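Recall the central idea of this unit: under ordinary conditions, the amino acid sequence of a chain determines the structure it adopts. In this exercise we apply that idea directly, starting from the sequence alone.
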Amino acid sequence: MVLWGLVLGALLVFTVGFLCLLGLPRQRRPQEPPLDKGPIPWLGHAMAFRKNMFEFLKHMWAKHGDVFTVQLGGQYFTFVMDPLSFGPILKDAQRKLDFVEYAEKLVLKVFGYQSAQGDYRMIHSASTKYLMGDGLAELNKTMLHGLSLVMLGPMGQSPDASCWREDGLFHFCYNILFKAGYLSLFGYTKDQEQDLRQAEELFVQFRKFDLLFPRFVYSLLGPREWLEVGRLQRLFYKALSVQHNLEKNDISSWISYMLQYLREQGVAPAMQDKFNFMMLWASQGNTGPISFWALLFLLKHPEAMQAVKEEATQVLGEAKLKARQSFDFDVSILHRTPVLDSVMEETLRLGAAPTLLRVVHGDHVLKMANGQEYQLRSGDTVALFPYLSVHMDPDIHPEPTAFKYDRFLDSSGSRKVDFYKAGKKIHHYTMPWGSGVSICPGRFLAINEMKLFVLLMVTYFDMELVDPDTPVPPVDPRRWGFGTMQPSHEVRFRYRLRPID
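Accordingly, the structure predicted from this sequence is:
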């Protein structure tokens, strides 16, 4: 027993000494941002950062100012918190701040997809062609059909659909948006009942992966959880396989275009399967959670709900479903909903918290808006966290924690685009989709999918919270930096299709 104690003690001393050596070489150089290596050699601030990124960065900002470098698990991240200084980072005319390198490492780890040269341009080309203009209009029609199928069933409205039902609002929104989006993008078989069952089964597995996702990215899973992630990855590779796609019709032109490109580049079918999993996550991982926040805010703010309903009546008329009927209207109305647009933009301001990352290639000088210059070291990562530095800035958005449905409407009822910080007009006043080269290429599809869902809910359904006094739940702190926030707990609500007169 004494011998084992000595051995373990020696190992501990060696390990601590080794970690200390790893942390010693890094010292702040002249003109570099303040450096905070943290309390633990090599790990630095990793544990505090992963526990609650928002609170950690708020503390670092107060301690060091608008620019600071922190050590996180052996890597160094320079956070820039002044939104007036974002421009040079997002535009990067010198091409020294690389988004693609970090993204490629992430998708390889999470989805198993090995990116090839040209993939990034291909995805943006496909998105420009099929997720904008006429291509987007066509996909909006497909998405409306998918929502109708999921919400009403293959036969349309059933006679008992007007009965009250109860569910968790988060589950309800995520479930519907995932299934409708999956079917609209990856197609249908001849048996729609079977399609709905498979979509439901996939959603259950998707949520399991979703819950493990933050700790998976940080490599904090336990042994059984690593096995579970592997099982889930294999399940999605099989369900989304190009071989399985051959059995389907109406696969979206967006997905088909990208798969055709991969085939022409000689990418193996197994890698195409992984690409499909990546695109499913990218397209469906955020729309459900944001729709939850949108409906919850409307239910908690009757004046906002009334404004959206009045606008929906203006563009849709007195829309009512008859028995065995599906949702069907001209999707061009999505261009005539400024109130709903403002609601969604405000929801995204409050509910989307991505981190924008750029790897520094070659030592680089960052010039701030106030004229101060900082040296950025090659190999470090520059990071922006707009939720804290922009969305929650009271100078840009007065009462930033409050939901104001008309925050993005000007006095004429049109979209408001003039926002200011320190008396200067600011270009990046919200950044839920990222910005610059890393802006989400599917943002127009995502926002239209969510708008269609909210329009359907406020137009055709009655909704109410089971407990009208229930507060808006806090966000799950594990999701900071990973796109859309999720609630820390469920909110129960009741809903029904409005009865036919």
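DSSP finds 18 helices and 13 strands in the chain.
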